[in-house]
Amino acid sequence: MALIVKTSQLPNAGKGLFTTRPFKKGAKIIEYKGDIIDWKEYTKRVKEDKDGYLFFINKHRCIDAFSTPKFKARYANDAAGLGRVKGLKNNSSYEVFDDKCFIVAERDIEAGEEIFVNYTKEYWDCIRYNIKHKLYKTK
Predict the structure, then answer these.
(1) Is 62 helix (H, G, I), strand (E, B) or coil?
(2) Distance (Å, rounded) from C-alpha 116 to C-alpha 77?
(3) Which of these, 37, 90, 119, 120, could form a disulfide with 78 (CB 3.0-4.6 Å)?
(4) pLDDT at 132
C-alpha cells in the first residue's frame, strides 16, 4: 500500500493523504474515485447537504466521493487553502485521462509526505463566499 490516511498537517483539515513510498515527478499517485453522476444529480446532493468531494469532468460526468470514504484520494488537501502552514506547498495536481481523474506528482515526493493538491481559485472563492454568508460550517 503506497498511501495512508491520517491526521493532516493543516489546521482544521481533519484527515490527510500521506505516502508510504516515494513518487517521481509525473507519476500517477492515485485515481480519484467515487459515484459517477451528472451535474443535475450533484445539484440535488448539494441541496441535501451531501456534497464536498466532487471532481467535475463535464456536466455529464462528475466524480462524487462524498459517500465513498473508502477511496483515499478524497483525503488529499490543498496547502493553499484556508488553513495555510508556512513551508507547506502543493506537490500534486488533478489530471484527467479520458474519463478518469488522477492525482499526479508535480515534483518528486518523498515517502512520508502529505499529498497536497490544488483545489483551484474558484473552489476557494466559493468556500469564502459561503463562509461570509453563513452557508458553510467551519470546524
Answers:
(1) strand
(2) 5
(3) 119
(4) 84
If you count DSSP H runs as helices and E runs as strands, how many of each does the chain have, helices first?
2, 8
Q: Which of 36, 27, 30, 81 lies closest to 57, judged by CA?
A: 36
Q: Which residue has the cell 465513498?
A: 68
Q: In the predicted model, is pLDDT for residue 65 greater than 90?
A: yes
Residues 6+ positions from 106 with CB-CB distance below 8 Å: 25, 90, 91, 92, 93
Q: Letter for the amino acid at 29?
A: I
Give the list of residues 6+ apart from residue 59 with CB closer than 8 angstroms, or none: 38, 39
DSSP strand E in 65-119: where? 92-97, 100-105
Q: Give residue 92's pLDDT.
A: 98
- Is pTM, for the whole model, over 0.90? no
DSSP H/E element including 125: helix 121-132
Q: What are the sequence ranges of the domains in the chain?
A: 23-107+116-132
> Does CATH number 1.25.40.340 belong to domain 23-107+116-132?
no
